[in-house]
Structures are given as C-alpha cells and as structure tokens.
Amino acid sequence: MLLIIGYVIILAASVGTYAVHGSLAALWMPMEYLAIFGLAMGGFIAGNGIKAIKATLAALPKLFIGSRLNKALYMDLLAMLFEILSKVRKEGLMSIENDIEYPENSAIFAKYPTIMHDHHVVEFVCDYLRMMVGGNLNAFEIENLMDIEIETHHQEAHVPVHAMSKLADATPAFGIIVAVMGVVNVMGSVGAPPAVLGKMIGGALVGTFLGILLAYGFVAPIAGQLGQKVEEEGKIFQVIKTVLLASMNGYAPQVAVEFGRKVLYSDDRPRFIELEEDLKARKGR
Fold it and tell me: Which pLDDT belongs to residue 209?
C-alpha cells in the first residue's frame, strides 16, 4: 500500500507539476516508452539467471501484502519455544522426539497455526531440536551451523533485492541510449522545419526523463522495500537461535525466551511483564 501511495506522490510531483505549465501530450512518445521498457526487460533477463528471475517475480507480489511478522506472531513463537523447552526440562530431550519428527501431528505445534504456516521456521526449529536430542554437538558447534544457515538464507533472500538494484542502476543509462537514438534521428532531419525538429528533440529528451524517473521513482523503491522485508524476515531465525542456544547453555525456559525477546525490534518486542503474563495465561488453557 505504501508503495502505491509513494508512486502516486511521485507522479503528482513530476508529471502533475509539469502539467501545470506544459502539455502532457508532449510526454506521450510511445516508441520511447517501448524502447525503455524493452531495454529494461532485456537487461533484467540478460543480467540474471533463471533462479534469480523466478525469485524476483515471486517476491514482487509480497510488496502489496502486509507483513506477517508482528508482536502477536513473535508472542506465539516465544510461547511455543517456552512450551517445548519446558517439556524438555520436565521430561527430558527424548520426550519431544515425536513432536520434532512429525510437527504436523504434534499437540504443541498444533496450538500455534501461525507458526505452522511457515514451513521454513518449523523446519529450522525442528532441525536444531533434533540435533539437541541427538546430543552429539555442543552449543558452539550448533551456533556456528545456525549462523551459516541463516547467512545462506539471507543471501538467497537478497537475490531479488540485488536484481532490482542493478535494474535501477541501469535504467537511467537506458534512458540516455533512447535519448541518443532520438538525437541521431534529429541529426538526420536537420532540414526539417523548426517545429518538427523541436518535437523530435523533445521526444529524445523524454527518453532521458523516463529513464531517470523509472529508476529512482519506481524501481529503486521496489529494491528498497524488498531489502527491508528480507531484514524483517531474518529476525525470526535469530530469535529461535538465541532461545535454543540459551537453553543449551543451561538457562531455564523462562530465561531462554527472555533472551529471545531482547533480540526483537522495538516495535515487535513485547514488554517483559507482557510476555510473562501471556505465558502464564497460556499455561491455564
């Protein structure tokens, strides 16, 4: 929604203010528009592999969907981890073996449908709980492995960001290409009347205008928003990592989830008393 609002403001500030003292018809140069979009599309396809193209196309619709990551979801995550670790503390690591092997059939996971809908999160939790149950790795080794996996996930998620950033950087140059092509066309028509030459020169300049406007007004904001979403989505894995490592280092479940709470961004972080009361309330259910 904010992306659309931003686009409206950009168009109003550029095309709208121009319309006050100029003719919008002068900006209507279909061939320049076609050339710019063709060059941008060709550059995008030529500069990225099939995986990057698919990842970018899959990421774009997410810009128009509100973030699922909020305080309520993190409260569910911390409560779920607290319940799992509490069961481990009372009944031993082997007590959660069925829960982590078949999370879709687990009574614990079933209480948290918002978490279950994200298979990446569920897989991350279960994989490292499984390692804890195996007992063959210490906290340092698991932390190193978690960091590598989170970094890998981060790199994969950044592929659409890099693709759109490169496109934003290239689009002004495509505008210059279109402008140069227009100037070449003008040079071939130097004997034409001034009114005709003026229109041709104006058309060439439209290419430069369009390239810069598309780059910084439309494509760059997409790259920026995709980047912000990647950073937001990476936070949930950091929370899980922090809680599980705290548990492995011997901290009680209540303290372990407090470690995880402190990792959250301030907008999504519940207060200590808020989390404590929520956990107590869930125990009574």
Answer: 85
Most distant pair of Cα atoms in the chain: their distance: 92
Question: CB–CB of 163/52 below 8 Å?
Answer: yes
Handedness of CA 172, 173, 174, 175 (dihedral sign): positive
DSSP H helical ranges for 113-251 = 113-116, 119-134, 139-157, 159-187, 194-214, 220-248
Cα-based distances in Å from 227 to 10, 230, 231, 285:
21, 5, 6, 39
Task: Please tell me whether residue 137 adopts helix, strand or coil conformation.
Answer: coil
pLDDT score, position 140: 87
* CA nearest neighbour of 229 among 145, 159, 148: 159
Using alpha carbons only, give the angle 116, 118, 124 rounded to the nearest 5 degrees.
Answer: 90
Calpha distance 16→24 (Å, rounded): 9
The overall average pLDDT reported for the chain is 88
pLDDT at 285: 58
How far apart are the C-alpha atoms of 162 and 154, rounded to whole Å? 12
From residue 279, give the alpha-carbon distance in Å to each of 77, 199, 254, 282: 11, 70, 9, 5
Residues of 228-261 as b/e, b for ≥16 C-beta within 10 angstroms? ebbeebeebbebbbbbbbbbbeebebeebbbbbb
What three-state secondary structure class fits 244? Answer: helix
pTM of the model as a whole: 0.82
CA dist., res. 144 & res. 279, Å (int): 30
